[in-house]
Batch of 2 targets.
Target 1
Amino acid sequence: MGGEGGVAAELVIFDCDGVLVDSEVIYVEVERSMLADAGLPIERERYVRTYSAMPGAEWQAKLNEEFRQRTGAAAEDALFDRIRAQCKRGFEADLAQVPGARAALDVMDIPLCVASSSTEDELHWKLRHTGLHDLFDPHIFSTERVQNGKPAPDLFLHAARAMSVDPRNAIVIEDSVNGVAAGKAAGMKVIGFVAGGHCRNGHDEMLTTHGADLTVASFAALAGAIRDLATTKPVI
């Protein structure tokens, strides 16, 4: 049941994209392809490490910094609008829950919530579309509720406050470097989750290098990982 350095596990906070719903594989492939066509090719591993899980405005601003550095000018806003529209078409056609999500979540006996860089509308749509919304509603928190998105800790701290849990007694489930950084900055334990379709060889090592306390590769292994981080005495 864990030991030194564990937490009480009074709350599990799930990221959405790439953890609950298999959207990151769509985001990564669409975004990289369209950015390359616009003159900004980015190696896949660096793109996933740098840009995954950023809120939309920050993602666009950071990409524009790279556009300026490499091409001498920012991209047109219309490019990012086209990318978002193409991602939405991909979701409507192919978005599904990450394998095993519903079955594992149905039997978890600990409070759960979602904290995501998606907008409110996007987040609720993704969860409804994949049949997971009822497992979390009303404890669904979008980056729009805080000033600073991931990798800042604001969203996870907001979720813990809303759930009346000390951040030190919460466990975050994250698939991205930015999400892991946010969870650790919030003072939480973080499980790196590498079951999404975008996770290739080395993704687990990348998350561990950036602070994940441990990693798992399936929902079937998640309950055991939570137990491994848990203690029976809450932090007060």
Target 2
Amino acid sequence: MILVGRLPSPFVRRTAVLLDLLGQPFELRPLSAFNDKAALRAINPLGRVPALIEGERTLVDSVAIAMMLCDRYDLNGHFLPRGGSAMADAMQLLFLANGTLEKFVAGYYERTRRPAEKVHEPWVEHCWGQASGGLAALERSAQALAESEEAPTYNHIAIATMTSFFRRLEPTFYIVDRYPRLERIRQRCEAIDAFARYPAT
């Protein structure tokens, strides 16, 4: 398998960590959505990462990739529950994390990718207000994840890679004292070998 994307992306990093924890070897092809547009769009017409190439099949979107990998290799449903209310609860938390991350990125790109005179700060505030609401909801919902002593699930991985991304890019957005459960998840996961093998650099 070939994982397309760069590890600074939390969507790519979470996929690399999951592959590692599932014991699945892969090659990392570090294409950038900004610097390798033509090469990336030849793989994914949306020009987004990650993409996972397996033979003639290319799968895009980190959640779609995770669901395929877990369906195939996570037969006991540890990383993602395989059905019922447990799956519904896990997917609700996962998509809340995804939405939080996407709204943060929208605001961050508005501020960093536009010329300063064209940045629309009300849009940044709107996006980051939505992302902050997502973080608060995740903090309220993450008690069981934060207190778990078992090996990390996919939601642990998604939350940890997301919050590490926030700390690296905009520490004033993710103030750790406000999110003790999320921070406990982040610290525990970052201490795992699989995270160390795929640093966000």
